[in-house]
């Protein structure tokens, strides 16, 4: 498991940024995140990986047991290039 910060932009303005978000795991097709904020399945968001935004669709969300955080599964609109 590789964890790194992964802020989310959830709207058209820069004020719609969830900064408290980090990766749980990542693949070329999507990313699983832990975050403090509100996102819903079907929503399109931008995830900033290495300061470069990647457009994603929220596939699912789940409360993170006993905290005010969410675990979310996001699918990249365009798969990441393989290393």
Structure write-up:
The protein is mainly β and 83 residues long. The chain has one domain (8-76). It is 0% helix and 49% strand. It has strands at residues 8-9, 17-18, 21-26, 30-35, 44-49, 52-63, 70-76. It has a 7-stranded antiparallel β-sheet, with no helix packed on it. A hairpin with a 3-residue loop joins strand 3 (21-26) and strand 4. The model has no long low-confidence stretch (mean pLDDT 89).
Strand order across the largest sheet: 2-1-5-6-7-4-3
Count of domain modules: 1
Order of helices and strands: EEEEEEE
Strand percentage lies at: over 45%
Count of helical segments? Answer: 0
Instruction: Compute the number of strand runs.
Output: 7
Instruction: Give the structural class.
Output: mainly beta
Poorly predicted regions are none
Layout: helices, strands, pairs:
Elements: E1 8-9, E2 17-18, E3 21-26, E4 30-35, E5 44-49, E6 52-63, E7 70-76
Antiparallel strand pairs: 1-2, 1-5, 3-4, 4-7, 5-6, 6-7
In short:
With about 80 residues, the protein is an all-beta fold. About 0% of the residues lie in helices and about 50% in strands.
Task: List its salient traits.
83 residues; mainly beta; seven-stranded antiparallel beta sheet; 7 strands; 0% helix
């Amino acid at each position: 498991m590789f964890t790194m910060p992964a802020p989310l932009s959830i709207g058209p303005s820069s004020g719609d940024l969830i900064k408290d978000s980090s990766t749980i795991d990542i693949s070329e097709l999507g990313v699983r995140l832990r975050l403090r904020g509100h996102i819903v399945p079907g929503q399109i968001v931008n995830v900033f990986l290495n300061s470069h935004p990647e457009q994603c669709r929220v596939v699912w969300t789940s409360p993170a047991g006993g905290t005010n955080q969410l675990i979310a599964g996001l699918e990249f609109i365009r798969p990441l290039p393989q290393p």
